[in-house]
Amino acid sequence: MPRLVIDDLEIEVPKGTKVIDAAERLGIMIPRFCYHEALGAVGACRMCAVKFIQGPFKGIQMSCMIDAQDGMIVSTTDQEAVDFRKRVIEWLMINHPHDCPVCDEGGQCLLQDETVSSGHARRRYPGKKRTYRNQYLGPFIAHEMNRCIHCYRCSRYYQEFSGYRDLGPLQIGNRLYFGRFKEGRLESPYSGNLVDICPTGVYTDIPARYKVRRWDLQRSPSVCIHCALGCNTIGNAHYRAVMRVEARMNPYVNGYFLCDEGRFGFSYTNGGADHAQRPWTSKIGGADVTVEAALAESSSKLSEIAAVYGPEAIVALGSARNSLETQSMLSRLCRRKGWLGPVWFTDTAVYRKVRSAVERLDSGIAVSMREIEFADFVIIAGADLLNEAPMAAIAVRQASRKNAQIVVIDPRPISLPFEFRHVPAVPGQIERCLGSLVKGSISKEELKGLDSAAKGFCKALPAKFGDKESGISIPELADQLMASRRPVIVCGTGIVSESTPALAADCAQLLRESGKKAGLFYILPGASSFSSALLSGPDAKGFAEILSEIEQGSIKALIAAESDPFRDFPDRERLDKALSQLDLLVAIDYLPTETVKRASVFLPSSTVFEMNSTFVNPEGRVQHAERVHAGGVPIWGAHPPRIVRNFIPGGDHQPAWEILWKISAETSVLESVLTLGELIAAEMPAFEATGKAQYPVNQARIIPEKSEGSFVKPKTRPEQGQKPKGFNLLLTDRIFASREPSVYADTLEGVFPEPALFMHSEDAAAAGLSDGDTVSVGLEPGSIEVKLSVSERMARGVLILPRQKGIEWQRMKDFSAWIALERIRKI
Amino acid sequence: MAQPLVLFKNRHPNRAATLDEYKQSGGYEALQKFVGGKVDPGEVIRLVDESGLRGRGGAGFPAGKKWEAVPKDAPFPRYLVANADEMEPGTFKDRILLHTDPHCIIEGMILAAYAFSATKGFFFVRPSYDSSAVIMERELEVARGAGFLGKNILGSGYSFDIVVHRSGGRYICGEATALLNAIMGKRPNPIKPPPYPTEKGLWDRPTVVNNVETLACVPHILRNGPQWFKDLAITPKGAGTKLFCVSGKVNSPGAEELPMGTPLREIIEKHFGGMIPGSEFKACLPGGASTRFLTRDHYDVPMDFEDLKAIGNRLGTAAIMIFDQKTCMVATAHNLMRFFARESCGWCTPCREGLPYMRELLWLIENGEGKEEYIDTLRSMCKQVWNSYCALAPGAAEPVISLLDFFEDEVREHIRLKGCPFHAKAGN
Amino acid sequence: MWWILGLVLLIMKLIIVISVLFGFAAYMVLVERKLLGRFQIRYGPNRVGPFGLLQPLADGIKLIIKEDFVPRTADRLVFLTAPAVVAAVPLVITAVIPFSDDLTIGGTRIPMVITDLNIGMLFVLALASLAVYGIALGGWASNSKYSLLGAIRGSAQLISYELSMGLSLVPVVMLAGSFSLVDIVNAQERLPFILVQPVSFVIFLISAMAESNRIPFDLPESENELIGGFHTEYSGMRFGLFFVGEYVSMIVLGALTAVFFLGGWRGPILPSLFWFLLKTMLIPLFFIWTRATLPRLRYDQLMHLGWKFLLPVALVNIVVTGGVMLFMGW
Amino acid sequence: MAKEKSVLRDLLDDVMGLADSYAVTLKHLFRKPITEQYPDFKRLLPARSRGRIILTRDPEGEERCVACYLCSAVCPTDCISIEGAERKDGRRYPLWFRINFARCIYCGMCEEACPTLAIQLTPDFEFSKYGVLDFLYEKEDLLVDHQGKNADYDYYRHAGVSVEGDKGEHINEKPPVDVKSNLP
Amino acid sequence: MLSEELKQKLRTMIADAESPREKAVDVMLEIQERHLWMSDEAMEEASDLLGMSPLELDELATFYDFIYRSPVGNYVIHVCDSAMCWLEGHQRVMDYISIRANVPIGGTSPDGLFTLLPVCCIGYCDRAPAMVINRRVYGKLTPEKIDRILDKLAGENEFHPPE
Predict the structure, then answer these.
(1) Do A748 and A780 share a domain, yes or no?
(2) A264, B37, B187, C246: which has the fewest Cβ within 10 Å?
(3) How far is E157 from chain A (nearest CA, A)?
(4) Confidence at A95, pLDDT banded by 50, 70, 90
(5) Which CATH topology does E4-63 take?
């Protein structure tokens, strides 16, 4: 622990801390451009020069390049250092254009701040300014190279940190240019971070272009709900519209960064560019009414139905984008009023997988994304990180940069921004592959040291997974796994079998008992699926059962709280028919979903930006999102009226839990437990440990010290004989285009990947199909027409169908389907 | 005193010495003795260390020390890089050496590699020396044929091979760490140690980068002993001979091998035919473009690392560029600054933005648009570019520093006259 | 019969005096604004009528038609009556002021005073100290911190200066040998008391200024710290009453000064009423002049002046006067 | 006795001081007023006097305002509201620009902050209306057809971002760097 | 656009190296031998061979002096303009070549034969002024010598038209 003195203040810092960071701990902000904690020091900008008065280094040195050492005496205010920094600013400013007024960075520009603080105000350089031509970099990022100060942050972030190779430095000397080989959209789905990382306005945010200045924004800490990871964000609102979303530093979750889906997929909350897409007003039977009327209508209808048919004729639906508050309220109401539900997942199988995953996490084994970065062996089983949880891919990349071996066991044609070994196993084989990999890594001595349960489990693991199937030597990987110290298993809950999450947990447990610091991370299907799994009992009814009860006529009313079965349920025709039999369909939502359109009573709810809400991420971390603004139809884009009103147009929305509470006519729900925090604590015992009195809870983890039930002997199923000439159709998520808030965000429309059905190239060849063909896939209720994309890097015998916009996949009987070869036809 | 010829003893006009010629002059004896005789590599390092051989590429770092810095337990493969990417204006000694005695370099490389058990050698050569690269490739094949190179050299069990790596041509590639990046196919930006290339160089393996001339000295040291090498120099602290490249206003510009410490006057007047008729010595750069001017006052200074250091200068590459009284020093400084500004890799601010700034000021002064305050700006900037990432910018500042030290009157004259008193346009 | 005539005369006198007083007060506002303008090298009001002569009329109309606003938290009754108290008190004082030599009509001497009270001066002093009730009540009833502060200041100020004012009049009584104002005027047949009692005059003048809350003693109002002080919350004609009250009391104080020190209506050649009015007007004019000249005192200075300077000087003056009278054998 | 003397002297000084000030005001009473009879006589105001605000145009007749929000940021009474927008050619302009003159205190900070010299205060100070909403001035009301002060200034000639044409065409700029150039 | 034969040659070249990237410059120089300069298509194909992204190759191509990313003539004349050559009159040489071969400084002659570019020190200071033409160096230039060289090159070209 070196001790050093900076500006007469003494500090002790951990070994390896840079002087610039040591100063920051003391509250001394040494100016910097190229240095960034996540990217490290490269000493390019020379802005962080300070004077070393005593110690191993003397004179002007870059504080970002030097590790703190004992006996250093450093002055940041020494005249020589100040003069030098001022000169650096002068050098940087000789070519910087005079365009702050038309630059979106103005007001939040590091260069602007440091130029002002250095006192450089007058241009002395007699020469002319260098100029550059800009490039088109896609719909998210605007490029203005004239402003560049060549700190290399963008290329270091883009190439080294995020692992994409289409943006970098060109030319030499003072003609240095940061751009692409040719104009075009940036390939990285993490490109938005360039905006944050650039110290000046070279890369600016196009959705927020020319709209607002930083000082006019209402900013609040928020949480991203586009996928389960719960990345921390800052919501920025102005004129009743969310203008942009920035990454908020959280060392355990997302670090400094954010994926493009989370960053640019916010426009659903504004109702799109014309603000018309979001349902702003309450409706009864499609006609606009006041909130009070809608509340009264739904409330009276519900009690009517309850009186006539009994409370069990009412069913409540929740979803994976409900806040924890809404979920707790739903669960409480269902219990007290005797309603059916709440049903969180449309697919019961997914629910069971999530539940078994959540049950198996404990604080010893659950790792955060930060801890994944320090893993030295990562097994990704049944998860397509880039499409399902983009920031997790970035975390794994950091591990990969530290030379960790990455193994992906998944049938999909996975692409990730780092090197990995891909075992294209079909879902049924993922367990075998994972099991044999883990089993192979347990040495004989280690096996002896295990207790009986673990030993039994280990023995029951499948011994072999043929190299033939994967083309990769599992024993070789197992040897590497054996040598690792901190392996992490990342397990998906999408396409895998129902027993896989538990098996992954057992494997991680086994690795831990064999003396490794093993970790486990689940990729869950939605922002709040963790808490919904905690809230629902083991005997919860599935949506399909509910649907048949509706068909039978025993259910008369349905309350859909931010839930849209039309998005998730595969058989649209059946759903259509069933829901039209209902007496009452109450929809509470902020998205213009199909359910909202068909609701007999609609009540607008608040988005995450418009209320205080809580979400639990897949490692059990409770995160609180604060309200950013009050909401309402944005003023943005049209001339504001001159009239004086005492209400906000579109300001009728309220948090879904509040609406539920009001329509339940159950005033005692809140009164009896007094506060929202106590409601949550009462519904979720796991919450108790975090201290219910301190609601809102932020950053506490609600997972037990030790989970129960482990080492269930895996079923050593016999190899399912390949059915002749047929395919297993798998539905998957795709970045930007398939998750719920994103598909309603028109900002993302420009980057939707082309709809495609994926198929192994050999399978395609056997079926006489080739890449780019439009094929028709015959299913029972109807057929799907889609473009075919073939790949060699995926499992054989499966068809991958993203549930994305542009594919009418809801013509299936169930969530998976077996397609005979002859039902795939080229058209 | 007779001129001791070590590196140039096989000098033939217009052709390079062949393997046989080299062998006749005692070539490959050291290789036979040390590699063939499986002498402990530590012995090689000790001898070279003792001889006082210092890097001939400009920095003057003791060669033996560099080899010693490779950790004994470092992983294999290890690499040796011969740096023939001389791009310093005024320097051409490596080209002359290559065209004179390529085997001397090859043997030097093998011995150096042997000293720290390198497994592969890179001969890094710049594009305008393509003829040298061709010669080198040809002679490497010859050496391989003779069993001096390749697997199991001379039956010693030690294997080493050399490949010629052609550069795309940039001054910064001559910097050791940038050179390594260039070989690896990355952008040739310098990297500030630690880690030192001797620990983590090419592909994170130990790598030693030596100048071609340094390597060429090694066989001779090992053959004749360190003391012999030391005695070659005139000055007590110097060691060996040095290839002096003299260009500019002398009668016979070129490269000659002279003992370390030969005085400047003797070099110019005796060995390079004196100043051309009608010219008087005004100033010279003693070691390439990134050194300070020597004026008439320094005419008798011995050309050695230490002696030049004593007067605040550097021997650099010992490329002496001689300017006569008709040369405008401001224009010269501008030309040099233009060179450096152009060749900056663009990594750090002082070099990327500071050098063009200084070039602009010098250009304005030369063209009669100068102002008095530019002199102060130049002075302070010369000091400030020292805080740059690598040594390019400090090197670039050297001529300007000495311009302002020794020729301030001339600069002020430019400003006063609003134009160049020499009427020589610098060109842009 | 006598008493009927007396009643008629009394009513006539009352009507004449009150209307003259109000007329003077209204025009005093104009005079003040005009004079202040001239003191500051500008014109003053000159837009309404010739030379701005109709300005008081315009002001009056404005005040009457303005919204009469009562703060929600105010004590309504007190709030409404307070201005009346302020306006009424100086009017009552005029009852004992002799404004001219007796008028003889048809052999009947009609005294040119509404009522010649033998304790006139005590009456005057008593009523003068009543005026502060208006201020205190108005300020308190407004339920506003500024008003309350103004009211407290007003009361404190009044107590401080009432004392020296009363003491400054003791020598006058001693010299006149009577409390009746008519007698006091008569006592100055030879010499106005200002010449006999200059110190008393100065103390009286300063105290009068302080009593009427005029600059430099306008701390209860001080616009720039209390935004009007006790009348912050008042508007319309109620404010107007405060306003008029201040000017009426200025005139009344002028009249009292004339009676006590300047020999009342006495004067050569010109009719006595004219002399009285002239002398009466001198004092308000001096007040206006002072307003144009002096800045407001600080509160501690105000207290200092009242208690540590005026009061001792007044006491010393009484002693000296008494001594001289004893010595001279008056 | 010296002390008492000084008390008397103080008193005398005070009285003399008072007398002096009374004399000054009295003297003023007899001076001719310097008042200008405003509605009858209107003085010509200097160009920099701060009255009603206008938005000027650049020499090419384009709106100078680029909706940089500096005026609204600096405004101490928050009387300016703007929404920026982008023209097809990339030029920034205010979609709408509203000044609430009922709030404006004519401090001129907006003019000082304006980097493009778009917002300017004019000597027009006679500015009263019957309705408070009439004080809401929109861009159409504010925008004038001239350059106001500094007629020659054209921000987009200095900006360094190109709106029309290529980079490097603004004042004091080099031609754009050609990334593929063969020149050293 | 690269011929299969050239690609094969480049593949073997790359296979020899420690890592493919090492040969980036050699590959580009080799392609320039045939195609004079690195067009975008050439860059894309070369980067494919090297296992780099086109941008990564472009990072190198634009860095180096002797890799041409803009079209050049059959002969690229690099006239040294650093200290010694400058002292000995590089400007005169430039001007002379420019007029003689009808080629603008920094550009290509209309017949596509010559491109005239300045270059930083080429290490022939003893033979200043000097120039490099297609990696061959000519020193101690005089008008007569330049005439001779240019005539010879122009003559050669008639018999060996470049691809």
Answers:
(1) yes
(2) B37
(3) 32
(4) very high
(5) Arc Repressor Mutant, subunit A (1.10.10)
Question: Do A344 and A312 have their domain in common?
Answer: yes
In angstroms, the CA E146 to CA E151 distance is 8
Closest residue of D to E76, CA-based? D182
> Chain E residues contacting B, CB < 8 Å?
16, 18-26, 28-29, 50, 52, 59-61, 63-67, 78, 81-84, 86-87, 90-91, 119-128, 132, 135-137
Structure tokens at C223: 């616009």
* Neighbouring residues of C75: CB distance < 8 A, sequence distance ≥ 6: C140, C141, C143
Residue E61 Cα, gap to closest chain A Cα (Å) = 8
In order of D77, D137, D138, E9, the CA distances from D134 in angstroms are 18, 7, 10, 81
| Helix residue ranges per DSSP H, A94-145 | 110-118
**Tens-of-pLDDT digits for all 428 residues of chain B?**
456 677 888 888 788 888 888 888 888 888 888 888 888 888 888 888 888 888 887 777 888 888 888 888 888 889 999 988 888 888 888 888 888 888 889 999 998 998 888 889 999 998 888 888 999 999 999 888 888 888 888 888 888 999 999 888 888 888 889 999 999 999 999 988 788 888 888 888 899 999 998 888 888 888 888 888 888 888 777 788 888 889 888 898 888 888 888 888 888 888 888 898 888 899 999 888 889 999 988 888 888 888 888 888 888 888 899 999 888 999 999 999 999 999 999 999 999 999 999 999 999 999 989 999 999 999 999 999 999 998 899 999 999 999 999 999 999 999 998 888 886 444 43
DSSP string of A317-362?
Answer: E--TTS-HHHHHHHHHHHHHHT-EEEE--SSHHHHHHHHHHHHH--
- Say if D67 is an interface residue toward chain A (CB within 8 Å): yes
Q: Which pLDDT score, from 0 to 100, does residue B68 have? A: 87
Residue in the block written with tokens 């906000």:
A648
Beta strand A726-732 pairing with A798-802? parallel
Contact A747, A265 (CB under 8 A): yes
Asked if A433 and A537 sit in the same domain, the reply is no
Write down the pLDDT at residue A151.
92
Phi, psi of A394, deg, nearest 5 = -65, -40
The predicted model scores a pTM of 0.85
Which domain range does residue A800 map to? 727-826
Rounded Cα–Cα distance for residues C47 and C39 (Å): 19
Q: How far, CA to CA in Å, does A737 sit from each of A164, A754, C270, E66?
A: 21, 9, 107, 46
- Out of A47, A60, A173, the one facing B352 most closely (by C-beta) is A173
* Per-residue pLDDT tens over the stretch A41-68: 999 999 999 999 998 999 999 999 999 9
Pair A316, A424 in one domain: no
User: Between β-strands A798-802 and A824-826, what pairing exists: parallel, antiparallel or unpaired?
Assistant: unpaired
A297: three-class secondary structure by DSSP: helix
CB contacts of B427 in chain E (<8 Å) are 81, 86, 90-91
Contact A152, A146 (CB under 8 A): no
The listed CATH number (1.20.1530.20, 2.60.40.3200, 3.40.30.10, 3.40.50.150) that belongs to domain E75-155: 3.40.30.10
Give the pLDDT confidence score for residue A715 in this predicted structure. 67
Q: How many helices (H) and strands (E) does chain D have?
A: 4, 6
Residue A179 domain-assigned? no
Q: Do chains A and E touch (3 or more CB pairs under 8 A)?
A: yes
CA-CA distance, E155 to E99, in Å (whole number)?
A: 18
Domain CATH for A88? 3.10.20.740
Does residue B194 have a cis bond before it (omega within 30 degrees)?
yes
* pLDDT score of C35 more than 70: yes
Angle, alpha carbons C9-C11-C16 (nearest 5°): 95
State the residue range of the domain holding C87: 65-328
